Amino acid sequence: MPKLHPLTFISAALACTLVHAADPAKVPPAITDVPSEVGVMVGSPPLPENQVNLRNYASPRFMRWTLAHMSSVFHTERVSRGSGKPTDLPAGKPLDIDALRVDWQGQPTAMAQAFRILGADAFLVLHRGQVVFERYFGDMTPTTLHATNSCTKSFVGTLAATLANEGKLDLNAPASRYVPELASSALGPAKIRDLLDMRANFRFGDDVHQAGSLQVGALQAYGVLPRPPNYTGPDGSIAMMLAAHPTTEHGVGPMRYDNGSAEALGWVLSRVTGKSVPDLISERLWQPMGAEQDADFLLDSRKAPIAAFGLQANARDLARFGEMIRNQGRVGDKQVVPSAVVSEIRRGGDRAAFAASPDAAVLPGGSYHDMWWFNHDELDSFQCQGQFAQRVWIAPKAEVVIVLLSADPDASRSREPLRLAAFRAIARALTN
Amino acid sequence: MPKLHPLTFISAALACTLVHAADPAKVPPAITDVPSEVGVMVGSPPLPENQVNLRNYASPRFMRWTLAHMSSVFHTERVSRGSGKPTDLPAGKPLDIDALRVDWQGQPTAMAQAFRILGADAFLVLHRGQVVFERYFGDMTPTTLHATNSCTKSFVGTLAATLANEGKLDLNAPASRYVPELASSALGPAKIRDLLDMRANFRFGDDVHQAGSLQVGALQAYGVLPRPPNYTGPDGSIAMMLAAHPTTEHGVGPMRYDNGSAEALGWVLSRVTGKSVPDLISERLWQPMGAEQDADFLLDSRKAPIAAFGLQANARDLARFGEMIRNQGRVGDKQVVPSAVVSEIRRGGDRAAFAASPDAAVLPGGSYHDMWWFNHDELDSFQCQGQFAQRVWIAPKAEVVIVLLSADPDASRSREPLRLAAFRAIARALTN
Hints:
The structure is a homodimer. By secondary structure, chain A is of the alpha+beta class. Chain A contains 15 helices and 17 strands. Among the domains of chain A are: about 5-75, no CATH class; about 95-140 and about 315-430, 3-Layer(aba) Sandwich (Beta-lactamase), CATH 3.40.710. The first copy, chain A, is about 30% helix and about 15% strand. In chain A, the strands form 5 sheets. Chain A has a 7-stranded antiparallel sheet with strand order 5-4-17-16-15-14-13, sandwiched between helices. In chain A, strands 1-9-10-6 form a 4-stranded antiparallel sheet. In chain A, strands 2-3 form a two-stranded antiparallel ribbon.
């Protein structure tokens, strides 16, 4: 692969800020080198130049390994699956994926090639709750936990929508009602619904949401990049939230995607329930849906769970989560999330606000609601999205759920048309 | 609890060096304060004085929390359970543990009191493979991963004995046959059987096995304590192994317990199989025995798995492991470890070499073999042992397995008589 400066990758690292209007010449390719084949962390001990650490993990050479070994580089907390038997993920009639072609840059492209272009680490397709395709690439296995990055936000959004449904969270209340400390921050007056729909307006961290910026400051503040010796920036996500600067009024203007909204929601959820976000995911989602593995959750420098991008999970449990949402909150006979919550999520968001945002260039006609991304297409499809192209794509009208875990560092999401074309081609093949 | 200098605890932290001939007045009590009740890591955010980090975790105030949150403080790697259904851990006729008394310091002591004296975090009893008692203390739950510390060694020993049984490891070969780099180290000429039985003689790390020393140097070398700014010591366990100093001939003299032997075995296992110790535990033990949770494995500063004390697991999966060993390597119809390997382990070790060691004061009449501790009592009992009093105690003649996870910082093991008396009273009650 071409040599890129590590900072090119840091820009696309853990947080999920968009870089808009990408110059195609500057779009980094997906990472397809297999870590074990190029020597990364191979051997006992690995050669010094092959050892990953907090200083070098964001380099193109090490990032694919890191996405699949987060707890070896960062500090994490468990998301327990409980003690029971995992729910079945039954096998269905295998999908002949090799028969499918998708259009990419004017060329009919085989799926195997598409997986390569997209830097796929794992690809799993459920149709009517049955596994019709499951493939792992490089060193990935069915049990490898992979960073989901900002897919985490959709878990946070689903939890918040559930608490609202239970009457424990007032969507019209300002965040400061639940977290009084936020009164002095630009985040304080933001309504819960503004946070959920990315309609809060503020500046979070030093440079975290300046489109195209390197995000180094924010990642140092989170503690997921080393800090310089005389670092004086914020220590952890709470410090960043408290220092959020006001910009314009909340709840108006374009949808504006920002980690700060998810962090504030995570803080609110913790105060409302007295439980951490990873514990809430465990109790309300992971355990009742019958996950087969514990997940992991990234901690910041103060050991606060990073609500904006903390979750690591395997493809099969992410598929269970997507299938539960597709199935109106049910897993078998068990209602894990109230059906009304899923219906509310599936209403989607304000399409005009989305059209006015730079994200409309990537998802034209889309919207954002309850921390999910909506395509408003003929399949009613919607998804979670995480940096390096993590996706759980749900297409209710095709009864399809697709999990894609990948190592695509392109923060401009210039390969989104190929991803969506692949998802849709599979949905079409399964419904024909 | 009385205030103790943090270094008192560091001495008893993760590694398992013995402190002999303890002065009873200096024996620290078990930690019984419940972290969540005394504010440790409570709140979002916790008060600054309640936040655990790499500098303060070894203090009496924070150590109990840390034993149950290792991946939040250190770097870890997963030990995968695989994707299948966990094996059953069926409930048996409940043991009336409150009816039992054990003698401690001349007083009949109720079990509830014994648990408190021993700083129990979890206590689980299997009789004929059925759970007859299972209790968690403080913040512990059935799914909490707890440091097993040097219980890890018995996993390493079991793996090595299995590879020897398969002809992949020659017990009479020197370690340097498998790891040529060790030729220049005092560990190189040690035979595999000397390492397995703690009959290798050398000095490991700066001060790691000087009885009663603070071990700060070794823990800094592992990277599990912060290093001073001008630190020039070894970086990681491999560097410590390479720097091991010769003392006397291997294979003679008293049994001499040392982390270095386990580290060397871990290195040998990795070279023989091409797999890391955590991956070997997953493939050969955790997956086939049907664990219900992934375990975690501690990494050193170079991200090498710490074979001497790296494993964290929940009590229920440790019980499955113990029951598999008690059952001659079988779980249900599946032979997980060859029966001959368990028989070889159960032969026990050289009792004269053990009698000549300081450990004989704690386990009189005992021995050490294949990284397990033997009591040579009427129950044929043996156990793994980890610092802060982690135990999996197996009593074949009583068909009993007991898991004790605890927070007892007494490196002199002065409360061992109470622990063993409790185990034996339970075995007696179950077999009467």
